[in-house]
C-alpha cells in the first residue's frame, strides 16, 4: 500500500492521472483468460474452438495456461514474458522441429489481447512491453 501511495503521489506530481484499482492485486491469469473467451464468443470469432468435453478454447491457449495459470496479472512483467519465451523455445514437446518464433509470437499476441481487454474493462491500468521475436518472411510461390 505504501508503494502504491508513493506511486500515486509521483504521478500526481507529474500531472498524470492515476487511479488505484482495488481488485487488480487479486486479478489472476484465469480471469483475463475468461474475458478473452467471452469476447471471442460474443464476437463470433472463428478462432474459438469447442473441445470434446464441451469447453471452449482458442488455439495456443494451452501453452499460455501451462506457464501462467494461478499467476496474478500484476506479476506478468516483461521479464516474465521473456522467461515464457525461453521456456517455450526449450520445451518443444519432443517434436522433430523446434517451436517457430511465429508460433511463440502468436502465443504472446493472445496474452497481449487478454491484457488489452482487461485494461479496456478497467481491471488493470498498465500493460508490460511484449518482446516479440523476429520472424522469417512468408514463403513466396514461384
Largest sheet: 2 strands, antiparallel
Strand runs, count: 2
Low-confidence stretches: none
SS content category? mainly alpha
Strand content: under 5%
What order do the SSEs take from the amino end to the carboxyl end, as H and E? HHEEHHH
Average predicted confidence as pLDDT: 86
Question: Biggest sheet: strands side by side, in what order?
Answer: 1-2
Calculate Rg over CA atoms. Answer: 18 Å
Describe this structure in words.
This protein is mainly alpha-helical and 142 residues long. It has a domain at 26-120. The protein has helices at residues 2-14, 29-43, 61-68, 78-90, 101-120, and strands at residues 48-50, 56-58. A two-stranded antiparallel sheet has the order 1-2. Helix 2 (29-43) packs across helix 5. It is globular, with a radius of gyration of 18 Å. The mean pLDDT is 86.
How are the SSEs placed, and which strands pair?
Elements: H1 2-14, H2 29-43, E1 48-50, E2 56-58, H3 61-68, H4 78-90, H5 101-120
Antiparallel strand pairs: 1-2
Helix pairs in contact: 2-5
Task: Looking at this protein, list some descriptive labels.
142 residues; mainly alpha; 2 strands
